[in-house]
């Protein structure tokens, strides 16, 4: 009788297992934030052929599914793979082999890093990024006298943290053909005492960048793979690269097709005539890993270098209004051209004047159109009720919360006490638009999505300054922040039907965290670590 009972139990177990659907992976005992329409939580899910096939309780999933890979995560938090809605992925990779000038406290420290770099690398052209005079005791732009003395023959180009100003030595200026007579629309060659200072603001920078040594194909590949490693470690599964040339986009596609690059990339095409001629005539490109259907345009410069285009003069520089990098008439014509090609237009606009120009151009080009999802990148300063433009469902704000906490120390000097109240207004933008896409603008800011989340909800720096938060009325809730880094960022990329939430039929892109991002103390958010990252259900 005992043998018969054992046999019956075995048959029952075998029969139940036989009736289960076999999948690739089952995750159980998890704290899952699905980020679906009702922001439901779950305990478990099943993955097959790279997609979620079911989400529910651990019992419901294990009763229905069997898998060779069953992962019990012991209550750990799982969220959809993070999406950076605005970054420079390829640029991050390139910067790994350039001088890192971020968080320097003086120009002397900048020079020490440049000297240390060159003593090690011995390059023929020194390129650096990251200095910010606002972090120094002397907050004026530096000049190139010391660079000229130290490097009389080696070209040196050091770009400001915002990417909108550059310090060059004379060797670099000579190589680029820049003289005191050089005039470039949409920027400035700064001259003091009838001498070149070496400071270039916005469009003249392109003359120097044009003479940079071209990276080899292998260097480009290495840059992309290095950037991928950095991003994967921090939980990013999709990046929206804000400005790429055709050759780099094609290299990304090639590496993805051969399996060398697994990062999903939403590639915004850089606004050059060559790129536009190719992509607007040939149409969008869409694979599971690459999406090319947008054009990145620059309307103005940045506040830190006083290049952002303002309606009224800068508070700390009389009769200075910043710079429109692209002429307003050209923005309007470009908007019409991009819309006719059925591409998305994503425009950098920092100052209130630039934002008004862009929003008016969008409104004219998109009249009577539906679901175009054109984006204003940064949308930093908006006055005279310009936020109302975002009530048009065709227009999405794409912002970077760490810009607010990086700029808050000095931005009132630029804008004044009244105008600053209408800057970095993320909550107001969300109220108007219903959705807001969050990114970092890395490598201008740090890559970590946890810093993005923290800045969005706390409006403080890592020292918890200022007490109560910077213009805290425009902080986002944790739910809004998570949506902005997942489903809303996917929506801004026309990809919300395939990613951005843990739902049946979507790509199985998810990350396992060591802390609960929705419940941990606010000041602990920046310390969250990624324990595992999955793309298409495969751990990377």
From TrEMBL:
Domain Amidohydrolase stretches: 71-538
UniProt KW keywords: Hydrolase
GO MF annotations in UniProt: hydrolase activity, acting on carbon-nitrogen (but not peptide) bonds
Record flagged with keyword Transport: no
Tree of life domain: Bacteria
Protein name listed in UniProt: Amidohydrolase
Biological source species: Mangrovimonas spongiae
């Amino acid at each position: 009788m005992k043998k018969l009972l054992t046999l019956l139990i075995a048959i029952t177990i075998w029969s139940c297992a036989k009736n289960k659907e076999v999948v690739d992976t089952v995750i159980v005992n998890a704290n899952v934030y699905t980020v679906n329409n009702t922001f439901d939580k779950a305990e478990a899910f099943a993955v097959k052929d790279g997609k979620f096939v079911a989400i529910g309780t651990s019992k419901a999933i294990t009763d229905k599914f069997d898998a060779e890979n069953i992962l019990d995560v012991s209550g750990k938090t799982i969220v959809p793979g993070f999406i950076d809605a605005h970054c420079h992925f390829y640029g991050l990779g390139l910067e790994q082999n350039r001088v890192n000038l971020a968080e320097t406290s003086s120009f002397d420290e900048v020079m020490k890093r440049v000297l240390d770099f060159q003593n090690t690398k011995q390059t023929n052209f020194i390129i650096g990024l990251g200095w910010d005079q606002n972090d120094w005791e002397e907050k004026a732009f530096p000049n190139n006298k010391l660079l000229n003395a130290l490097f009389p023959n080696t070209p040196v180009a050091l770009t400001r943290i915002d990417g909108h100003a550059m310090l060059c030595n004379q060797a670099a200026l000579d190589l680029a053909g820049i003289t005191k007579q050089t005039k470039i629309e949409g920027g400035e060659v700064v001259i003091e005492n009838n001498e070149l200072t070496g400071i270039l603001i916005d469009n003249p920078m392109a003359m120097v960048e044009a003479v940079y040594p071209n990276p080899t194909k292998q260097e480009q590949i290495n840059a992309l793979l290095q950037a991928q490693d950095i991003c994967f470690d921090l939980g990013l599964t999709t990046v929206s690269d804000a400005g790429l040339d055709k050759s780099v986009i094609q290299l990304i596609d090639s590496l993805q097709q051969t399996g060398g690059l697994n990062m999903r990339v939403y590639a915004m095409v850089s606004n050059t005539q060559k790129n536009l001629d190719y992509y607007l005539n040939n149409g969008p490109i869409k694979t599971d890993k690459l999406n090319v259907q947008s054009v990145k345009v620059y309307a103005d410069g940045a506040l830190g270098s006083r290049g952002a285009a303002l309606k009224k003069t800068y508070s700390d520089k009389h009769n200075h209004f910043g710079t429109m990098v692209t002429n307003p008439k050209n923005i309007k014509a470009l908007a019409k051209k991009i819309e006719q090609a059925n591409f998305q237009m994503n425009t950098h606009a920092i100052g209130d004047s630039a934002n008004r120009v862009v929003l008016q151009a969008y409104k004219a080009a998109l009249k009577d159109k539906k679901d175009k999802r054109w984006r204003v990148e940064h949308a930093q300063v908006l006055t005279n009720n310009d936020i109302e433009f975002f009530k048009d469902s065709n227009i999405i704000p794409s912002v970077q919360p760490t810009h607010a906490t990086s700029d808050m120390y000095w931005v009132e000097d630029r804008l004044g006490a009244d105008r600053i109240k209408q800057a970095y207004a993320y909550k107001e933008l969300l109220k108007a638009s219903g959705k807001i896409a969050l990114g970092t603008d890395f490598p201008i800011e740090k890559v970590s999505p946890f810093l993005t989340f923290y800045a969005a909800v706390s409006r403080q720096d890592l020292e918890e300054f200022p007490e109560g938060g910077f213009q805290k009325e425009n902080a986002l809730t944790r739910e809004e922040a998570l949506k902005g880094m997942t489903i809303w960022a996917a929506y801004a990329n026309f990809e919300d039907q395939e990613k951005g939430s843990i739902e049946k039929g979507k790509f199985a892109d998810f990350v396992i965290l060591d802390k609960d991002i929705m419940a941990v103390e606010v000041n602990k958010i920046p310390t969250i670590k990624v324990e595992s990252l999955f793309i298409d259900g495969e751990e990377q």
